[in-house]
């Protein structure tokens, strides 16, 4: 019989952690819903890479890695980007804190499954391609959030959109560019526009 574990109760608290805490939001976003979207976008990026750009990725594994990419925040909270990247020393120290939080969570996992969760949470078990796809999906989803806020008239996200747009372009990633070109424009449309029959335009 496996021992009791607080691991899953901790993961359930992802929904309590708000993203973009220093900025006015028309609609708040929590880490749990963000992680679901990152999982979906990462899965799509992996499929795009495999289908069109000679990739050989396990899209299902990448989607799962993405679901777990921010779990350390149930311990650390979400440190706002302007603070996290304000100088190299803070960035380096926060990386250490994140790593400690990840290991703390892994130690909470039921012992019988600990190795399985370590492979999802600890980045040393992720290939370079897997890590890139998850990171790119994370940035893409942040970019989509800026579009959502700007479309709602919230100019607070104007500079964030420019910064994220530059990061995405600097990747020079064919799968990211494919997603940006083919799928991102729809996020600036209304419900009526994305549900109308294309054949009757």
Could you describe the 3D structure shown?
There is one protein chain. 62% of the residues lie in helices and 0% in strands. With 201 residues, it is mostly helical. It has one domain (7-185): Orthogonal Bundle (Hypothetical protein af1432). Helix 2 (31-52) crosses helix 8 (128-151). The chain is globular, with a radius of gyration of 18 Å.
Count of separate structural domains: 1
Work out the number of β strands.
0
Question: Radius of gyration, rounded?
Answer: 18 Å
CATH topology: Hypothetical protein af1432
Low-pLDDT ranges: none
Overall pLDDT confidence:
93
Order of helices and strands: HHHHHHHHHHH
CATH superfamily: Hypothetical protein af1432
Q: N-to-C terminal Cα separation, in Å?
A: 61 Å
Shape: globular
Counted by DSSP, the helix tally is 11
Q: What composes the largest sheet?
A: none
Q: Summary?
A:
This protein has helices at residues 7-11, 31-52, 59-67, 73-76, 81-84, 88-108, 114-121, 128-151, 158-170, 174-182, 191-195. With 201 residues, it is mainly alpha-helical.
